[in-house]
Amino acid sequence: MSIKTNQVLIHLLCGIVFLLFPVLSSPDFPHIGMTLHNVNGLREVFTHALLIGFFYLNYAWLVPRFYFRQQYRSFYLLAFLFALFTILLIYGLSQLMGAGRAPYPGPPPMPPPGMHRPLHSNLLRMIFLDYNLYLFVIVFITAILLKTNERWRWLQKEQLQTELAYLKAQINPHFLFNTLNSIYALALEKSDYTATAVVKLSGMMRYLISESGKNFVSLQQELDYIRDYIELQQFRLGETAGISYQASGSARGYEIAPLILITFVENAFKYGVNPEQHSAIGISITIAEDSLTLTVQNNKVTISGAATASGLGIRNAQNRLQMLYADKHRLQIDEDAAQFRVTLELKLI
């Protein structure tokens, strides 16, 4: 059975139990018929049904749409308005169900001599007292906690998947193979650049293995990784591609989610280079006033069938940005028949 199916079954079971709680906690329990024919019992059943709707309104819409995006004022205002609407609806239903019912004339009948009338008490009711007044708060907080826990587990899973994906796929095997071949050629020629190329490649692999699993890393480390990647690509491609890279501003004291920028850089080299066509790649990183702007531009060239563009890397990067930076980033992707351009503005921490 899948995790999603289990979650649906758990929600369904919890919803049924919550809906039956007024019956289970009724003084007339286990006589369900008496509870359902009682105005107070019916009112509590309707109250719990409406509270289930209020819970899923928060769980499925308000929390992910406003709370996770740190739009707290809108979140609490809408939650208050929906809670007020639900309370008024409950009050209206109570008045409607109570209309036309004449109060019982006089005191309740006494039991016959020798018989003791059982006390109308229930353990659950004794524990929760008159819970209708604060049940909204419980439902409200529960929706936030459950959705936050679900989001945290999703982030943990995404982080693991992202780390594995980068270790297995994001470092292009062709790039690694071609770079090693180029280093081998340099070694045969006894080039002075051989040792430098080996150091850069080993540093990149070390960064992937040791740092990519963290939530945030030093921005300078991320920029060093990007710089080494571009330099190795320049060395590998030689004169077959025109590559421009500029970085300005100070990265000192800032942190960033690891490998959040490299996807867009890798995408340019993967789909913007063809030795038989004019290949031009421009990369710019600017840091100013607690923000980072990344611009990547490449010419569209013909690529081999094995490297057909899937867009998976870009989509994964967009999902990570949405989860990790929410409303603290702006991503713009423009393309025409000749060029592909990505502009990412990121609020630094």
Strand content: 5-15%
The DSSP helix count reads 11
CATH topology of the largest domain: Heat Shock Protein 90
Instruction: Please give the share of residues in helix.
Output: 55-70%
**By CATH's scheme, which homologous superfamily of the largest domain applies?**
Histidine kinase-like ATPase, C-terminal domain
Helix/strand order: HHHHHHHHEHEEHEEHEE
Amino-to-carboxy terminus distance: 41 Å
Number of E-type strands: 7
What gross morphology would you assign? elongated
* Domain tally: 2
Poorly predicted runs are: 100-107, 115-119, 125-130
| Level-2 CATH architecture of the largest domain | 2-Layer Sandwich
Describe the structure.
This protein is α+β, with helices and mostly antiparallel strands and 349 residues long. It folds into two domains: 3-98 and 122-152, no CATH class; 171-347, Histidine kinase-like ATPase, C-terminal domain (Heat Shock Protein 90). Helix content is 58%, strand content 13%. It has eleven helices and seven strands. The strands form two sheets. It has a five-stranded mixed sheet, with helices on one face. It has a two-stranded antiparallel sheet with strand order 1-3. A hairpin with a 2-residue loop joins strand 4 (280-288) and strand 5 (291-299). Helix 3 runs parallel beside helix 6 and helix 7 packs antiparallel against helix 8 (194-211). It is elongated. The two termini are 41 Å apart. InterPro entries: Bact_2-comp_sensor_kinase, HATPase_C_sf, Sig_transdc_His_kin_internal. The chain crosses the membrane at residues 49-68, 75-94, 123-146. One of its GO terms (molecular function) is phosphorelay sensor kinase activity. This is Histidine kinase. Pfam families: His_kinase.
